[in-house]
């Protein structure tokens, strides 16, 4: 999958930064895909134009609160990381060095063919968990066009901002992850 990221970086000629897939995740053998909206600043490595000191990968081990929430909730749901891969509807970083930006409809549509390429690398995929409204919109648009035969379990974005504004969101995400674990037979 990281060979694909390297090729994608070469195909994008306007300076966009695409982080690597986490080698500790399920990779091409993943049976579940956790889909967020776009990479965060902590997933941008030193090679990115932003010169961030993050990991350079999309990982639940990144040093940021959203990744930590994903890690804790996945562990509570007894969902083994090797069954999963995390990615984004828009695979490149959006925003500036000081502020992340959410993808709009144009970015989501531009990224759709790349999402299709990612899905095509996951032959064992059974469950997709689009996390947050932007990821859900991107996944819904993808489903309309490609109609993949997978379980879709939409839920909240796992950011601290969502947890602070919607106290029930954490439990709802946990319930969704437990449902994913059950569908995958990991519980």
- Could you tell me the radius of gyration in angstroms? 15 Å
Which structural class should the secondary elements be placed in? alpha/beta
Q: Tally of extended strands?
A: 6
Biggest sheet record: 4 strands, parallel
**Gross geometry:** globular
The overall pLDDT, averaged over residues, is 88
Q: What's the order of the H and E elements?
A: HEEEHEHEHEHH
Question: What strand order characterises the main sheet?
Answer: 4-2-5-6
**Total helical elements:** 6
User: What is the terminal-to-terminal distance?
Assistant: 27 Å
Q: List unreliable stretches of 5+ residues.
A: none
List keywords for this structure.
alpha/beta, four-stranded parallel beta sheet
Describe this structure as you would to a colleague:
With 187 residues, this protein is α/β, with parallel strands linked by helices. It contains 6 helices and 6 strands, in the order αβββαβαβαβαα. It has helices at 2-11, 65-76, 105-120, 133-146, 160-165, 169-183; strands at residues 20-21, 32-36, 57-58, 84-88, 127-130, 151-152. The strands form 2 sheets. A 4-stranded parallel sheet has the order 4-2-5-6. α3 (105-120) packs across α4 (133-146). The longest helix has 16 residues, at 105-120. The protein is globular and about 45 Å long.
């Amino acid at each position: 999958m990281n060979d694909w990221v390297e090729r994608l970086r070469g195909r994008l000629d306007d300076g966009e930064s695409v982080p690597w897939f986490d080698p500790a995740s399920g990779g091409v053998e993943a049976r579940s895909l956790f889909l967020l909206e776009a990479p965060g600043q902590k997933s941008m490595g030193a090679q990115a134009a932003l010169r961030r000191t993050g990991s350079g990968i999309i990982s639940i081990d990144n040093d940021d609160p959203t990744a930590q929430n994903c890690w804790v909730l996945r562990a509570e749901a007894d969902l083994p990381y090797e069954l999963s891969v995390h990615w984004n509807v828009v695979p490149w970083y959006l925003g500036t060095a000081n502020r992340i930006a959410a993808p709009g409809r144009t970015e989501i549509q531009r990224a759709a063919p790349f999402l299709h390429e990612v899905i095509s690398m996951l032959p064992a995929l059974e469950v997709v968990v689009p996390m947050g409204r932007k990821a859900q919109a991107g996944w819904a648009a993808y489903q309309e066009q490609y109609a993949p035969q997978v379980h879709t379990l939409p839920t909240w974005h796992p950011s601290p901002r969502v947890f602070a504004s919607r106290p029930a969101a954490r439990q709802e995400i946990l319930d969704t992850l437990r449902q994913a674990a059950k569908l995958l037979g990991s519980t």
